[in-house]
Amino acid sequence: MEENNTKQPGLFEKGGKLGWLHSTVDAFDTFLRVPGTVTKTGSHVRDSIDLKRILIIVVIALVPCALFGMWNVGHEHNVVMGTDWGFWRQFGFGFLKVLPLYLVSYIVGLAIEFMFAQICGEEVSEGYLVSGMLIPLIVPVDVPLWMLAIAVAFAVIFGKEVFGGTGMNFLNPALLARAFLFFSYPSKMSGSMCWIALKHGEALPDAVSGATPLSFLGECKDAVTPLTDHFSYMDMFLGTIPGSVGETSVIAILIGAVILLWTGIGSWKIMLSSVIGALFVGWLGNVSGATAVPAWTQLIMGGFLFGTVFMATDPVTSAQTETGKWIFGFLVGALCVTVRLFNPGYAEGMMLSILLMNTFAPLIDYCVTSAAISRRAKKAKLA
Amino acid sequence: MSNNIDLKKGLNIPIAGTAALETKKTIAQDVAAVKPTDFKGFSPRLLVKEGDKVSAGSPLLEDKKNLNILLTSPLSGTVQQIVRGDKRKLLAVLIKSDGSNDSIDFGVKDPSALNAEGVKETLLKSGLWLSLIQRPYGVIANPAVTPKAIFVSAFSTAPLCADTEFILKGEAEDIQAAVTALSKIAKVNICVNSADSAFAKLKDATIWTVKGDKHPAGNVGVQISHISPIQKGETVWTVAPVLLAAFGKLLRTGKLDLRRKIAVTGPAAINPAYVEALPGIPVKALADFYDASKQEIRFVSGDPLTGENVGEDGYTGFFDTQVTLLGEGREREVLGWAKPFRFSQYSSTKSYFSWLSPKKKYSMDTNTHGGVRAFLMSDVYEKVLPMDIFPIYLIKACIAGDIDNMEKFGIYEVLPEDLALCEFVDPSKNDIQEIISKGIDLMIKEMA
């Protein structure tokens, strides 16, 4: 013990020559090797799980969506442009389209994370591993890279770092990046023109061919038949439709959901109640005649399922109490479909409903804990 | 009377090194340490100096705030050394044994004939008063306060804990005497884990049967919160079974006898088993059980979740019936968190594959397995805490030093030990027991 204390600080340790690089070096060091720190007091032994493990599992759960999304980018290009590429060429095309998004997302996001950790002299938190994986999956594939870079910077700095970093933020950083893009560059982010990746010099043959089911519905919203003419339910389930990179395939998302639920990292309460909320409002819409689209199709269109599985379940920005999770999830699903039904201008409601509920999550928790406390107080009086 | 408590939440940590149910040896004590630091809220004033002769039961220290509360010597001999730490803080009084069984006679007493004052006096004079722990805050009991009730947990569920039935075999009459005496002060509640327990047959007490064998079902704090939650302004006392037996012996023989069976356990223990000894033995007396040349060992007096790291030159604690020997985990595993399989590591979650081998025992060490982060996961803590509180809110209130919220979220009901499992499972690697402990210190300071 004493030897350690009297030893000169190493090159990169606090107090050493390059000590100011402590956070960065430490981040790479603990990335490669588990830290050798031992417990001080209290619980002398600890569970082998840590945040790196939890977050890497979320990243793994996202891999099917990412891979499918890459293939689908090529596939949609094929469909629209009438070309006939094989599987590998489609995948390769998509891969080359999506890879730059990933590079921009991770390089910009991590650089800011490292910078802030460095300035604060703290360890680099791993939270951005997941945000960085999510962001390319929820943007249109053709989004200009400089826009993405600005959005990522905004989301990481104002969504997270100003509140104190991972664990202290109240808005989901990935969704915040998307919201930033959406409100700053609306022409690039909605309508039916942005969802198909094009080669240089190509143009979409017509507006309809690039529409997503939701933007299609937004334009002619009480017509179920044209929708199903254009997209079969099977297409929507498999994901062979236009949309943000990772959100289209129900199968890929369900694989991710199974991983999150089995490991207990994603809350089944939020997922289930969000589905219930969406079905409930979808059913109300049917009954009241607001829409002719069957309630269950709301689940397989657009970003609903992706948001429910990967975004609403974010443990930091969702409700913290177990009862609160039921309420939170239900409202996310319900609000999402409500926006879809009544806002033809912006057909996708998931992003806004999750962000809105993120801001309400602390209030939900406050109500739940207050109720529990007064219940306990009453019980104590009776006893 | 059927009093059942159903506890489903919790976790039994599969750590290797359970003590075999046999007493391997009786430790003939050369030196015993009396540590005032074992007792929260005890401000020691010395009554002896180095070289003084003492008998078993002679007062060594008194509490500055309440001069009736004495800490007495567990054996006869001479005061060898008074150990002080930083700022002359009194850490321990070392007593060198003279080999005799010289003991102060406190007089044989019939527990059913004593009144509350008589019981208190006996406890105070013998030094056994300090075996009573007062909640909230887990401090030494105040003799001037009559508690709402006295609680005893007749079983432990802590990892590798000593088997209460085994260590107290044949002491039923002593325990009965102690329970009868304590029932003069307040109602005694005893929690057992099965109707066959020797404790289930005790008279003068209310028996509660706890269903559920997952830790922390055996924690008296968890049991209290299900029987009669502590409200602001209330106090309850708790006492450990092994000290009940000592009190009973005191009543029936008139002598202070703290001898007990101690389980020597842990992954670093060789042939873990029980020894018989007084409290305050040097851990070096357990040299047969470990080999310090092979690995760096952490010596914990108590269980691996809540015990005190006493070091190789340390002494066991007053309350402890268990010593845990753990390897220090300073080794750095390459890409540990990224490996799909880590068969030698245990996780209570399904993010590793230890759920595939539910019967396996793990040779755990003291590595934290990760860096400290902000609280991220919200549901992992409640799963291991069978109490009607919001652990994460309580912890955050303690960090913020927010007295109002600490009260609301149940600071009166918990001690750090009750949240030890939350600390074990915490993926953000915060020292939750230390946070709670600091919160309790703040409460004591502000509410005094």
Task: Describe the structure concisely for a colleague.
The complex is a heterodimer of chains A (383) and B (448). Chain A has 383 residues and is mainly α.
Count of individual helical segments of chain A: 17
Low-confidence stretches of chain A: 1-7
The total tally of domains of chain A equals 2
Largest sheet properties of chain A: none
Shape descriptor of chain B reads: globular
The greatest interface here is: A-B, 54 and 74 residues
Counting helices, strands and paired strands, the structural category of chain A is: mainly alpha
Q: Report helical residue fraction of chain A.
A: 55-70%
Return the string of H and E elements of chain B: EEEEEEEEEHEEEHHEEHEHEEEEEHHHH
Structural category of chain B is: alpha/beta
Task: Explain what this protein looks like in three dimensions.
The complex is a heterodimer of chains A (383) and B (448). With 383 residues, chain A is mainly alpha-helical. Chain A has 2 domains: 11-32 and 52-188 and 247-264, no CATH class; 266-383, no CATH class. Chain A has helices at 2-6, 22-32, 51-81, 87-120, 128-134, 145-159, 173-184, 186-189, 213-219, 224-230, 233-238, 250-263, 268-288, 297-300, 304-311, 322-342, 350-382. In chain A, helix 3 packs antiparallel against helix 4. The longest helix of chain A has 34 residues, at 87-120. Chain A is globular, with a radius of gyration of 23 Å. Chain A starts with a helix and ends with a helix. The model of chain A is unreliable at 1-7 (pLDDT under 50). Chain B is α/β, with parallel strands linked by helices and 448 residues long. Among the domains of chain B are: 4-23 and 107-253, no CATH class; 27-97, RNA polymerase II/Efflux pump adaptor protein, barrel-sandwich hybrid domain (OB fold (Dihydrolipoamide Acetyltransferase, E2P)); 380-447, no CATH class. A 7-stranded mixed sheet of chain B has the order 1-14-13-12-15-10-11, with helices on one face. A 6-stranded mixed sheet of chain B has the order 2-17-16-20-18-19, with no helix packed on it. In chain B, strands 3-9-8-5 form a 4-stranded antiparallel sheet, with no helix packed on it. In chain B, helix 3 crosses helix 5 (241-253) and helix 6 (391-400) crosses helix 9 (432-447). The model of chain B has no long low-confidence stretch (mean pLDDT 91).
